[in-house]
Specification:
This protein is of the alpha/beta class. The protein contains 10 helices and 13 strands.
Length: 342
């Protein structure tokens, strides 16, 4: 596991509390604690593990708080490294938990099925994507299936203010990484908590799995949201506080680079599709990744396929790709734009 830095005083009562994610290369999640007259408000809670909980409680102590005084937590998105400790926090403090309604809907759908049913659904989708038998068996042997956290009790919509005295913290809906991902804007201090929407060095994962997810075009939404967050009135002077990596400035420049990366990816994918019909697995395995495909663990291959599926959906929306073949093993082909009617 990566070294976890100590909690850090960011001034005017704001603290960054790195909460470890054990046995995971991501290392840790920055949980931010903001002071209010009613008690501290957290942005995210961290992974559901005793080590993570101990780090959160200890970090709050260094910030001059006790966990039972936490009044609420705004969750940027439902992923476990951000929302995992919501239930434990609520039990310890009675804090309210806020999340965008689109992510609350996702949690509700996930909670309708037990982990075995969700694992079976993932295996069915891997089969439909064309994953070879050895990959499917590797997943079956040690499935990694999301376990939903405690359900939030407060829906926070785009533009709404976090409901505490003395804190003008506003929700900015930035879908893509998840359907209900939120950034949090504190304009009077020129701060933006970017969650996983904008990170300083890596491009956030945007996936679509299953293939017929009801979420529409997550990558298209993500690219639109990148442009939107980069156009905030004070974007040029904001200090950005992400959930991972380090603080950064020049938000407009960073969002442009993220959009450019995905546009280059879409162009490369369209070029591969022009070589002939391909399954999702075949296309994913032919793309360049940070780690060579043959060295990826099955969970990483599954995430890569999910990301490829999101890019394919955007190409379909742009009428640059089309799905062909049987429903149980679809293939994608490039659309010949030279023969499209005007």
């Amino acid at each position: 596991m990566r070294d976890v830095p100590p909690p850090e005083d960011l001034g005017e009562g704001l603290w960054s509390i790195p909460v470890p994610v054990p046995d995971n290369p991501i290392g840790f999640t920055h949980v931010y604690a903001l002071p209010t007259p009613e008690g501290p408000v957290l942005i995210d809670t961290g992974w559901n593990h005793d080590t993570s909980w101990d780090a959160l409680v200890s970090g709050l102590g260094k910030a001059g708080h006790t966990v039972d005084r936490v009044v609420g937590a705004v969750i940027t998105h439902f992923h476990n490294d951000h929302s995992g400790l919501t239930g434990r926090l609520r039990e310890a403090s009675g804090a309210w938990i806020a999340m965008h309604p689109r992510d609350i809907d996702v949690l509700d759908r996930l909670s309708e099925h037990d982990p075995r049913e969700r694992a079976a659904s993932v295996i069915a989708q891997m089969t439909r994507a064309g994953f070879p038998d050895e990959d499917i068996e590797a997943f079956r042997a040690s499935p990694t299936v999301f376990r939903p956290p405690a359900r939030p009790d407060l829906a926070l919509n785009d533009g709404e203010r976090v409901p505490v005295t003395g804190l003008d913290l506003r929700a900015v809906w930035t879908p893509g990484h998840t359907p209900g991902h939120l950034c949090l804007h504190l304009p009077d201090r020129a701060l933006l908590f970017t969650g996983d929407h904008v990170l300083p060095r890596i491009t956030p994962h945007v996936g679509q799995f299953p293939l017929d997810s009801p979420e529409g075009d997550p990558l298209g939404d993500f690219l639109t949201a990148q442009a939107g967050i980069g156009d905030l009135p004070d974007a040029d002077r904001l200090l950005c506080l992400p959930s991972h990596e380090t603080r950064f400035t020049d938000l407009p420049g960073r969002t442009r680079r993220i959009v450019s990366h995905h546009e280059e990816r879409l162009t490369a994918m369209a070029a591969l599709l022009s070589q002939g019909p391909t399954t999702l697995w075949e296309l994913t395995s032919r793309l360049e990744w940070r780690r060579p495909w043959e060295h990826m663990r099955i969970t990483a291959r599954h995430m890569a396929a999910s990301e490829t599926a999101a890019h394919l959906r955007t190409l379909e929306e742009r009428n640059l790709a089309a799905r062909k073949g049987p429903m149980d093993l679809p293939r994608w082909v490039a659309v010949d734009r030279s023969h499209r009617p005007e």
